[in-house]
Design goal:
With about 750 residues, the protein is mainly beta. The protein is built from six helices and 52 strands. The protein folds into three domains: about 10-130, Immunoglobulins (Immunoglobulin-like); about 140-490, Neuraminidase (6 Propeller); about 495-755, Jelly Rolls, CATH 2.60.120.380. The chain starts with 11 loop residues before the first strand and ends with a strand.
């Protein structure tokens, strides 16, 4: 059953800062005593002498961008236990890997040491690196458009995969500067980024390359008949999915493996399609040719919302399988190709809406933030299957909205609109934050008898070109595929996809009209959080009628009061909050530190010390995101009024990992739980961190993804209530609940992460 859970040496100079009471920072001496060049110029290892390593919580490095750059600094944070586990710590010495340095340059590296008591101090050092002989030319593109000064682009670093050298893959920044290359001495192009490392398939093996340069073979799949990895490695449900050739099938088998290389699941497309054709009365030998290029699998994507796997068959179509059973759910492709001649396959076909073009010779399927399907349509007809189907002389990224009830596919976006790029093979497109795209045209002018190029193009949410670079190429081996990687604040160990923090703003009055938050801790271990209830300080953000003196109470599932606070300075965790920037802005506001919460359900209630109503903000901060426990079903109930007195729930998704969430707004169904004055018809709006509306819903059954809401047993009980399914990249989001037609009443906001 599917489960849910919320969501070279150089001079050194030091700068120290101290917070009041930061004893461990004051008492711990840390000195940079050496710098050792790494296996490539992009990596260096700093030697630190630390007087007491046991009080260290983490060490962060950040590399200053070159002057004039608007990219965010490349930064990594190592938890102390990670450094110990990797063998980098031998007290009093710590070896600190720094990666992402500019080659042939004096890099300014800023270090932040954080301690267990919440104190911290900083250091700055310079690291001069050797030059790098770049055989692929990644560091010297032809600039069709230099990175603009626009800072709206959601990503700053790009992993490019090819096979043009033994330094595969590579990471460049959006200025076009090379920042990292592979260290395994391999020239294979089937690569992904997972668990904060590079995974590269070569022959029947899979290797893992750490960003600090270490690498190891993690898997050998010859026992499964695997003879080679090809094309892509993509994210799966629980690990990564490899495209492989086996002794049975060519270009039509996928295997999912975990971070350690262990096999989790195998899909043999030849067997799956053959079984469906036989069941439908067709002869599969007329379509499935196991040892020939009948399918040409070139990529997959996992859709967490409906637990399905979407596979790209360049020869034929996009085919969707139920993840667990392998049963065919739908097919999207060109009806003039051979597959459509078989009734057994045709019955799974989605109908294209008027004005929509089917994907042809497509690559790089993915699910976008709004649960649409994104691919790059290379326009190439079938090579093996006959009839070959339609042929287009241009490539175009396309996004489709799928209605699986009506069995239709509607093209909702494509690019470019008024120009074309001839690129018959390879390529990719990925959406990072909503409407921020990275497009890779891998084989521009291929087959035309003129010079061939690879191109990288970045678009922001406004559709502006932020950068456009071109690289000489011979075939697809220069940049077969490119995808954003978020190295602005990467953490070791990995923080997986989850919802980390939640905040809700609403009107606090008396009776049922108080502000109530709920959260559940799951997993084998405990969770530590900080809870805050704000009121007076909200007036500094332009709000009127704020709650003068909020009081915070926390109950467990047995309705036992386990913590309460009126004025935050009286809480046992006050010093921690000050040291970590979590102290409320007004002494009348409330906050409490709850450490080692056992798995279970908890309720947070915000009331006023006097009966005068006012607007308050309740916030939950996960201060143990690296723990093996998670927060689930984070919710908030409050009164919805008009103007500023609406119910506003903010949540943060992960650090660098995306997550698929369901957000709900309930009203009428709360009456069954004894809540009076419920909101009769709630509406739900989701905004990103810039305040841009990215999704909205009034009645949940009108949502095209209602089928996914039902599948995950998250259907609101009342048809007037609202719900959305969103595949969101890491970042902060706001859910706003209002009443339709100005209605008022009590409502409940909920955020779930699907797992």
């Amino acid at each position: 059953m599917k489960t849910r859970s919320l969501i070279a040496a150089s001079a050194v100079f030091m700068i120290f800062t101290h917070l009041a009471g930061a004893n461990q920072a004051d008492d711990t001496a840390i000195t940079i005593t050496g710098k050792t060049p790494g296996v490539t110029p992009f990596i260096s290892k700093l030697t630190l002498q630390v007087s007491n390593t046991t009080v260290l919580k983490s060490i962060q490095f950040a590399i200053d961008p070159k002057p004039g750059s608007v990219t965010r600094p490349l930064s990594g944070t190592y938890a102390n236990q990670y450094l110990v586990g990797r063998g980098f710590e031998h007290p009093p010495e710590i070896i600190l890997p720094v990666f992402g340095l500019y080659a042939g340059y004096t890099n300014i590296v800023r270090l932040t040491y954080r301690f267990l008591d919440g104190s911290s101090k900083q250091a700055v050092t310079a690291v001069t690196t050797a030059t790098f002989d770049d055989p692929c030319g990644y560091d010297s593109p032809t600039v069709l458009q230099r990175r603009t000064r626009n800072t709206d682009l959601s990503y700053d670093y790009v992993m490019v995969k090819g096979s043009c050298s033994n330094f595969e893959p590579a990471i460049i920044d959006t200025d076009g500067a090379l920042r990292w290359v592979g260290t395994a001495g391999l020239s294979f192009g089937n690569v992904t980024f997972f668990d904060n490392a590079v995974y590269l398939g070569h022959g029947h093996q899979l290797s893992r390359i750490e960003l600090d340069g270490a690498f190891t073979v993690v898997g050998d799949y010859s026992s499964l008949g695997v003879v080679s990895c090809h094309h892509n490695i993509d994210r799966g449900k629980n690990g990564i999915i490899l495209d492989v050739d086996t002794t049975e099938y060519f270009n039509s088998v996928n295997i999912e493996v975990d971070a350690s290389g262990n096999v989790l699941k195998v899909w043999k497309l030849g067997d799956i399609i053959s079984a469906a054709m036989r069941a439908g009365g067709d002869d599969p030998t007329q379509f499935v040719h196991p040892l020939e290029n009948w399918f040409h699998n070139n990529g997959v994507t996992y859709n967490r919302a409906d637990d399905s796997l979407i596979v790209s068959s360049r020869e034929n179509f996009l085919i969707c399988l139920d993840y667990e059973t392998g049963a065919i759910k739908w097919i999207l492709g060109d009806p003039t190709k051979k597959w459509y001649q078989f009734p057994s396959l045709r019955k799974f076909a989605l109908t294209l809406a008027p004005g929509s073009l089917p994907p042809i010779g497509q690559h790089a399927p993915s699910i976008t933030y709004d649960q649409n399907l994104l691919i790059i349509d290379n326009g190439q007809s079938s090579v093996f299957q006959v009839p070959k189907g339609d042929q287009r002389d241009y490539a175009s990224p396309r996004k489709y909205r799928l209605d699986l009830v009506a069995k239709t596919a509607t093209e909702v976006w494509n690019y470019p609109v008024n120009e074309s790029v001839h690129c018959p093979y390879c390529s990719s497109v990925y959406e990072d934050a909503p409407f921020n795209y990275l497009i890779d045209y891998a084989f521009v002018n291929g087959g035309l008898g003129i010079p061939v190029f690879a191109q990288l193009l970045g678009l922001n949410a406004a559709g502006d070109r932020i950068f456009h670079y071109q690289y000489p190429a011979i075939n697809c081996g220069k940049i077969y595929r490119a995808f954003p990687v978020h190295l602005e604040n990467i953490k070791f160990p990995t923080v997986g996809p989850q919802v980390l923090n939640l905040s809700t703003r609403g009107l606090v009055s008396v009776g049922d009209n108080v502000l109530i938050g709920g959260f559940i801790v799951t997993g084998p271990g405990p969770k530590s959080v900080v809870l805050r209830a704000l009121g007076p300080s909200l007036s500094g953000f332009g709000l009127s009628g704020v709650l003068a003196d909020p009081v915070l109470s926390v109950y467990n599932s047995s309705r036992t009061l386990i913590a309460s606070n009126d004025n935050w300075r009286e809480d046992i965790g006050a010093a921690y909050m000050v040291q970590n920037g979590l102290a409320p802005g007004n002494s009348a506001e409330s906050a409490t530190l709850l450490q080692n919460l056992a798995p279970g359900a908890y309720t947070v209630i915000v009331t006023g010390k006097d009966p005068t109503p006012g607007i308050s903000l309740v916030e939950l901060y996960d201060i143990s995101p690296l723990a093996n426990s998670k927060l689930v079903n984070m919710s908030a109930r409050g009164s919805v009024g008009t103007g500023d007195s609406v119910l506003i729930s903010g949540f943060i998704v992960g650090d660098v990992e995306s997550a698929t969430v369901v957000v709900r707004a309930l009203g009428p169904s709360l009456a069954a739980f004894g809540v009076s004055g419920v909101l009769s018809d709630p509406t739900l709006t989701i905004q990103d961190s810039r305040g841009t509306v990215i999704a909205s819903n009034d009645n949940w059954q009108d949502n095209i993804n209602a089928i996914d809401i039902r599948k995950n047993a998250l259907s609101p009980p009342n048809a007037l209530e609202s719900a959305l399914v969103l595949h969101l990249p890491a970042g902060s989001y706001t859910a706003i609940i209002r009443g339709a037609n100005g209605a008022t009443g009590n409502a409940l906001a909920e955020v779930y992460t699907l797992h």
